[in-house]
Design goal:
Number of domains: 1
Number of strands: 7
Strand order of the largest sheet: 1-2-3-4-5-7-6
Number of helices: 6
Radius of gyration: 16 Å
Strand content: 25-35%
Helix content: 25-40%
Mean pLDDT: 94
CATH class: Alpha Beta
Length: about 160
């Protein structure tokens, strides 16, 4: 699936919130909360995530993922001296399970390898996406930190093409 990346701007707040909210739908369905309470909670959590990323990763780049001009998701990457690090990759439901996330990660892996850096990401320990990351050459990078497992795709990992289905 072909895609383009576009840096986010102030006019993209609603898209970013919608993308974030779509990642919390299943979790919030378990709460039994009224819709208004779920919406308020998601908005608060989204603001907290954004503030955290901008405060701790001020040189990071947040981009919208576009497919045929339509917003499909968000990719937030921090380019560090020792690695290229994915802070967040999230897709809207209509764009999941179509290879788009894989394509984004493979392109990031190529970018990291071209600058002789590994590609890093953190994943929730029980997140099914962890299997995808492992298939793409990521491995656990140390012990889990609470709910999150740091993962790293080393520069010496198998060639990107070998990871494609």
């Amino acid at each position: 699936m072909e895609y383009q990346l576009r840096p986010t701007g102030p006019g993209d707040d609603a898209w970013q919130l919608a993308i974030y909210a779509s990642t919390r739908t299943e979790e919030l369905a378990l709460t039994g909360w009224p819709r208004a309470q779920c919406d308020a909670f998601v908005a608060q959590q989204h603001r907290a995530q954004q503030q955290h990323y901008w405060r701790h990763y001020p040189r990071s780049l947040c981009q919208l993922i576009l497919v045929d001009g339509a917003v499909a998701g968000r990719l937030w990457v921090d380019s560090r001296a020792d690695r290229l690090h994915v802070l967040d990759i999230s897709l809207l439901p209509a764009f999941r399970d179509r290879g788009l996330g894989t394509r984004c990660l493979l392109n990031l892996a190529k970018e990291a390898a071209a600058t002789d850096r590994p590609l890093g990401i953190q994943v929730e320990v029980h997140n099914p996406a962890r299997r995808l990351y492992e298939r793409l050459g990521f491995a656990a990078d140390g012990e889990a930190q609470g709910l999150y497992q740091p993962m790293l795709r080393p520069v010496t990992a198998a060639p990107i093409e070998a990871c494609l289905p």
